[in-house]
Amino acid sequence: MNEINIFNECKDIDFHKDHIIQLINLSLKATKYNQVKINLIFCDNDKLNSFKRKYFDDDVLTDIVTFPIKNDNDLEAEIYISFEMAKLNADEFNVSLNNELSRLIIHGVLHLIGFNDNTKDAKKIMFSKQEEIISNFQKDICYE
Q1: For the chain, how long is the longest CA-to-CA vector?
Q2: Cα separation of 98 and 104, whole Å?
Q3: Cα–Cα distance for residue pair 68/28, rounded to 1 Å
Q4: Cα–Cα distances in Å, from 20 out to 67, 71, 125?
Q5: Could you give the angle at which helices 120-135 and 17-27 cross, rounded to 10 degrees?
Q6: Distances (CA, A) of 114 to 13, 100, 117, 128
Q7: What global pTM score does this model have?
Q8: Which of 101, 100, 106 minimizes the C-alpha distance to 127?
Q9: Which domains does the chain have, with CATH numbers?
Q10: Backbone phi, psi, residue 76, to 5°
Q11: pLDDT tens string 65-122
Q12: Is the distance from CB of 4 to CB of 38 less than 8 angstroms?
């Protein structure tokens, strides 16, 4: 049984928690973990930037940070998503906020289960998988 917890540190938005749980489970569909515990936290740019400086020695704005805690037969992790960056990305890429949030959630889960985007070929594989999952999910993540 998967345990997925969603925390919202953003004041001006509410999320469809049941849809987020469905999306995470869809992203985990082909995996063989005995147990999964994921905390998904929606936060602001300042929090993610402080994580990047503290844990990655990189002073840059980012939209998502994943922290795998345990990843063997069980998966335990935290995924932090900047709601501010998600809004900016949605505008930049001319997609809905729901679409961008879905992509970020899938992207975070894929990183946790072994996908990478650190080379051109790895990025192509990861983004292909991301698009495959998002094409099978047509529900809203937030109330726009």
Answers
A1: 39
A2: 10
A3: 15
A4: 18, 21, 23
A5: 130
A6: 31, 21, 10, 14
A7: 0.95
A8: 106
A9: 2-135 (3.40.390.30)
A10: -135, 130
A11: 999 999 999 999 999 999 999 999 999 999 999 999 999 999 999 999 999 999 999 9
A12: yes
